[in-house]
């Protein structure tokens, strides 16, 4: 539960997904630097966070009952971490990725909504956030490129 709630941030009485997402933001510039400096280490870090998120979300879902309980916010962390695949190592990029991620996480554009409705367990909880993270990273990259 400690991992699934991102150290208890998921217990926030309002906007727990937003608060959980904020946990990842300070790591985004460092992850982007790591991607440039050591691709294999970066890939291991991102895949490790995703695997941990799927495991923890699945376990927490079994404990809490129901699908994607609001206390589970490790999925938001994993989604933003995946967004780093597109980001430069800057605070501007991290901030924009956070904003775009929250929009995509709420709107659940295809295939995120389908994943959220159709997949079960930890993969269902985390899968839609990974899609939102990819969209957020790509849109952040485009925004920075054309501004």
Outline the secondary-structure elements:
Elements: H1 16-24, H2 28-37, H3 39-64, H4 74-83, H5 91-107, H6 112-118, H7 121-146
Helix pairs in contact: 1-4, 2-3, 3-4, 3-7, 4-5, 4-7, 5-7, 6-7
List keywords for this structure.
single chain, 147 residues, mainly alpha, 7 helices, globular
Explain the overall architecture.
The protein has one domain. The protein has seven helices and no strands. It has helices at residues 16-24, 28-37, 39-64, 74-83, 91-107, 112-118, 121-146.
| Alpha-beta content class | mainly alpha
Radius of gyration: 14 Å
Portion in helices = over 70%
Percentage beta strand: under 5%
- Biggest sheet features: none
Q: Uncertain segments of ≥5 residues (pLDDT<50)? A: none
Q: Care to count the β-strands?
A: 0
- What number of domains? 1
Secondary-structure element string: HHHHHHH
Form type:
globular
Number of helices: 7
Summed over residues and divided by their number, the pLDDT gives a mean of 96
Q: What is the CA–CA distance across the termini?
A: 41 Å
